[in-house]
Design goal:
The protein is of the alpha/beta class. It has 19 helices and seven strands. Strands 2-1-3-4 form a four-stranded parallel β-sheet. Helix 10 crosses helix 18 and helix 16 packs across helix 17.
Amino acid sequence: MEPKNVSLEMRDYIAEMGAETINWCMQCGLCTNLCPWRLVPGETSDGFNIRHMQRLGQMGMEGFEEETILFACSTCSMCQSNCPRGVKIVDNVRGMRASIVGGGMAPAHLRPILGSAHANGNPWAGPREKRTVWQEGLDIPQFGPETEYFLFVCCHSCYDPRSTKIARSIAALLRHAGVSFGVIGAEESCCGESMRKMGDEELFLKLAESNIELYNGKGVQKIITTSPHCLWTFKNEYPELGGEWEVIHYTALLSQLQEEGKLPLAKSLAKKTAFHDPCYLGRHSEIYDAPRQLLSSALQADPVELGRARELSLCCAGGGGRIWAEVPMGERFGELRIKDALNVGAEVLATSCPYCLNMLTDACKSLDQQDSLEILELSEILAGALEEGQ
């Protein structure tokens, strides 16, 4: 085997790009054992080993930059949440990616995504003026000085036809509960969470600074997010850049409103329903009970728990830029998740993240189980229970 050179300069550069805890890793291997890639076969599974990748980073050695290695991580945080040394593994992955993407070497399949975010303010190649198409026929209020909450709708739910139903459902629920909210519209840009996780630090800063200037200029103080990814980055990454607001995911807010008696719902859904915990709502943000309480209020029977739930929830594989990756059938985490739901006899699999909705829907179709299992976003179920609950 040809010897590899150790580069302390490369190691230090990786650390400067965000991998500040890279040297904390003691190579115990627990991260690799917990990684969802160990549950599926295939080329990526064979190549991706998070422990080994961090070791290469510690030594500044070549090898980690291979596309199927460096860009395989979905940033699900299963490894990070259980690391005995408290290594910030997701940040380390981000830093290692930034060291490559910053040098102009982003993977080919991600370049159009990053390019669209640069040009259009969103990764979905959608024109800015169409960011508000989801609002058609709803008379959504504009955010103003007297508005309590700014509703930030994830780019995915602005441009993806299936995901726009999430935005419409959440807006209906907020109006029903009497919440003072409004949107800003075409001036908004992507929160940048996935862009940063993919390693484009410059793009993230561009998007974040644009949003911060816009929101602060409008007088925003409280934000409702439709996506757990937007929630996480607004709460954890924007403050150091000057974006300091009260940020809440729609499930947490609606759960509070329901406890106050402001969101009466009918137990209208009779189908056996299971809930999938999104990584960025669960492990990353520790919100587990609110979505379950809301779901229970709209079901005729208690929801069923999947075998891998809450802190141990299995990633859908959509985070960290993986929603734009092409993965062969039989190598998708989402397919395992569909089987988890079918194993407990679920007729409906609910989630509360637009990425999860997309990934689980695709997995259900690839397994040809769409006649046996329906994939729904929690907001859709709640909105369906509104009319009868009035």
